[in-house]
Here is the input.
Amino acid sequence: MNALPPRAAGHGETPQAVGPGEDWNGSTYYGRQQLKPAPFNNYVVGGYIFLAGICGGASLLAGAAELTKTPHRDGLVRRARYLSLLAPFVGGAMLIWDLHTPKRFYMMLRIFKPTSPMSIGTYIFSAFSALAVPVAALQFASDRFAWARAGWLRRANGIASVPLAATGAGIGTYTAALLAATSTPLWAAAPRALAMRFASSSVASGAAMLSIGERGAINRRRLDEITLAALTLELGATIASHAVYQRRGIGEALKTTPGIIESLGATGAGVIAPIALQAASLLLTRGRSRPLSRIAAALTIAGSLVLRISFMAAGNQSALRPDISFKFSQPRNLRK
Amino acid sequence: MVHPRALDYTASTFDRLIPNESELTGGVIIEPGRSYGFFTDTTLCIGCKACEVACKEWNNLPADSVGLTGQSYDNTGLLSANTWRHVAFIETGSAGGIETGSAGGIETGSLGAVHGGGTGGGGGVRDNNQQPYQSGWLMMSDVCKHCHNAPCLEACPTGALFRTEFDTVVVQQDICNGCGYCVPACPFGVVDVSHQDGKAHKCTLCYDRLKGGLEPACAKACPTESIQFEEVSVLQERARERVKTLHGLGVSDAYLYGVPDAPGATGDLGHLNAFFLLTARPEVYNLPAAPTRASRRVRPALLSGVATMAGLAITALAIFAGGGKR
Here is the structure.
């Protein structure tokens, strides 16, 4: 069984360009992919991550407004509650549509698996939906019917806003863990910084969405301040994550077309530009410039969408290119 | 050597299974509760692709593509939903050049696709000064590694991927809903979702055959014992002996990929139930040098995300609670 293969005398040591003891010289197996990219539709799943972020962010802010009993919060809270319906209805449909066997979507509820962010996310999504739908329904009832304006009903809905905000925080950020817990180099390289980016982008886009709809100048300025804070955090996390990608040798992934869109579109036009506009609006006009606020909010929302789609696409590129994936799987990247 | 019990079954065809047939063909009795796997010794591989054919035949897998890639004798290309064994071919020049596409080359495109890098046979001209026998060739039959801590299994949200009583990792086709999350989870690029039926597919280590006391089809078909099927502990012991033997004979490059604390079993993967004996760096065979367990990134990502959300929530509370003056 352990017979030796025929070898010529004197040739015991086969010459290899990259023997096991040597460093990897950058060569690949005919340039073929070593990993398989996720079979997700980047627009659909990226779109879901964006919607989940907006809904989660808006719910979080509505919860904060309810908790602090901010004056004139009714419009803000109402819009956040209606907005949060996007995740259960549109987002849920997108997720099911992206399955390759959609009629078996309910199989997701068979088990709970803490090692799988897809499973964790299923239950966060379910909890968020289970709260968002009745809260929005009650809001709708109180908007339309006198009987539903009873004080205790509104109080109950206000109390429900707090767990809704908590699950909203979850739905806005678990998607980063979903991407990070893979072998796709760009997604996996910087789990902490990525989660910080996704979470702050969620809050920024939620605040921006509410700011666009806000009629009161005071609350609009507050929402713009929150947007500015979240965008600043996102910018910091972006810089940190890009530094990690360079350190781990996969900076090449950011030079692909989706990588460039991520840098210029999501970060440049979607984070830096609105930071500048919001800062200008808050400092120069004390937040009274509605057009400036609106343009900044629109850029923030678009940037959040572009971030999710382009980051997914750039990740798939990093999986398809062995020159990137082999750099990521070098032993020097093993330490945490 | 023929197992003595094999003499009881001399007919060409049988009307029923031979009890514990694996004992006759692979020298192993398959029992639930034990850990089974493959040891693929690439120094014995002759690149006949009998494993690929046996796998396709037994598992009734459709052809992926029938054409020539121009990449040595590798016309299979990669593991996929329909291809669960894949023989890689690497032609190395006698002067020590492993001729592969230059770094960063995605599609080298041209016929041969082997310029650059190597010294021997550069510029698209094949070196005609090969060493005798197969010393200028590397061949490896790649397969699902059936990881001890399998990232695909840990990622599967439906429980379709499960660990069998033989310590192998299998997709239950009646449960998989084709979410595709196992595909990027795999650090070896093995699992694939079929566009034909919308389910994830990969090597089952012939789960059905194991249940019937049969050795997996590829291992049974392998004519050189390059693919060996056994209990993992036995295989690991045998593989270590094999490396010692090879080192003693001067093949100092021989090493194991996928045994504990070796390349391939890094990043908390534990060990690979299907492991390999290689004589060049893992990348040469399109294997990652240091794969990792994806689920280890769940906690840091979730904690960081929740902390960010908490920080922004506090910021929002402070802003909402602040006076509305100015």
